[in-house]
Each structure stands twice: as C-alpha cells, then as structure tokens.
Amino acid sequence: MRAGFLMLTLVLALGSTACNRGRLESLTTGRREFPSFSNVSTAKKADFESEIKPIFQARCQPCHFQGGKVYDKMPFDKPETITRLGTKLFTRIKDEKEQRLIREFLAQP
User: Fold this and answer.
1) pLDDT at 107
2) pLDDT average per 10 residues of sequence, the chain (109 residues)
3) Phi and psi, residue 12, nearest 5°
4) What stretches of 41-78 show up as alpha helix (H) in DSSP?
5) How far apart are CA 48 and CA 68, in angstroms?
6) Residue 95: Cβ within 10 Å count
7) In degrees rounded to 5, what are phi and psi of residue 77?
8) Of 2, 73, 81, 103, which shows the fewest CB atoms inside 10 Å?
9) In the prediction, which pLDDT does 41 show?
C-alpha cells in the first residue's frame, strides 16, 4: 500500500514538472500551445482613403470638405478629425456597416 502511494506521488510530481517545463518553454520562446481567438480571426484594418473617406464624402460633402463652411473647424478629409470625434459621428452615420467600418478604423493604434 505504501509503495503504491509513493509511486503515484512520484508519477504526479514528474507529470506536473513536465507540464510546467512545457509552459515555461512556450513563454520564453514566444510560442503558444493553443491559438487564441484574436490570432484566429483575420481582422483587416480599415483604410482611411479607400473605405472611411468615401463614407463622409457621401454624407458630409458640402460642408466638411475643401471649400465648405465648416472645413476650417472640422475637415473630414483628415483622419485626425475622425479619430478626435470618435463615435460622436454616428449621429449622422446610421448605416450599421458604415458604423462598423468606422469603429474598426477608430480601434486601430
């Protein structure tokens, strides 16, 4: 009985050591054992010139672009303005697909 308990303790101790060694190796080499959901999804980055700017050109063209009344205060042809205003822009942009694109753009570093 005592020998069986000793063998079981020894096997469990070696097993946990092997598991910890594998985890430590994956942390030091940067390799992950299991893919995370963020790595699995292929989220593309929203491009300002080809995807975001045309949305605002269609909705805000006369006033917020070159020659418009409020272009000096809020030029929508510059990504900094869109980033600064953030989701406040959704008072005018109601389409869910367009809002999703703008959110993807705002989430970029």
Assistant:
1) 92
2) 71 62 56 51 73 92 92 94 92 91 90
3) -65, -40
4) 53-64
5) 20
6) 12
7) -90, 5
8) 2
9) 45
